[in-house]
Amino acid sequence: MKTLILSICIAAAVAISGCSLLDTVAKDENKLAVQYATLKVIDGDTQKAEQLKGWITEARNYVDTSAEVTVSYLADEARVRISGKISDPADMLLAMAILNEAERRIGERLGKGPLKEEQRVKLLTVFDWIESVL
């Protein structure tokens, strides 16, 4: 569950801005896209908000403590989390297509290896954006 919200944010940023979120984390439109996507996911549901807070805590811990954080690992973890949460086949197809495209675009920009320290810091900034609307 630690990466579902990360995947949603990455997918939203790629879909809305058409560029790599981690390369452009300082841009206000990406912050807005992440916050908007987060609010759409929780849709006023306090239980979902609490669940997302827990996921952010887990994701932050993973990024802080893991020696190697990779885009492919995060995407794979998101696939596992998404498959257990989306029951509608059409929604599942769309979610997987967005996730696959996000992973492809970000992988092209960042490569398949571990995220660099600067990229990890930017990722933690995205977590801050999410938490700010929960």
Descriptive account of the structure:
By secondary structure, the protein is mostly helical. It has one domain (4-15, 26-132). The protein has six helices and no strands. Mean pLDDT is 74; it is low at 12-19.
Using brief descriptors, characterize the structure shown.
globular; 134 residues; single chain
Summarize the structure.
It is built from 6 helices and no strands. It has helices spanning 4-17, 28-42, 46-65, 71-83, 89-110, 117-132.
Shape label: globular
State the separation between the terminal residues, measured CA to CA.
Answer: 17 Å
Query: Could you tell me the strand content as a percent range?
Result: under 5%
Q: N-to-C SSE series?
A: HHHHHH
Helical content class: over 70%
Mean pLDDT value: 74
Q: How many beta-strand elements?
A: 0
SS-derived structural category: mainly alpha
| Tally of structural domains | 1
**Could you list the spans in which at least 5 consecutive residues all have pLDDT below 50?**
12-19
- List the total number of helices: 6
Task: Please compute the radius of gyration using only Cα atoms.
Answer: 14 Å
Question: What's the main sheet like?
Answer: none
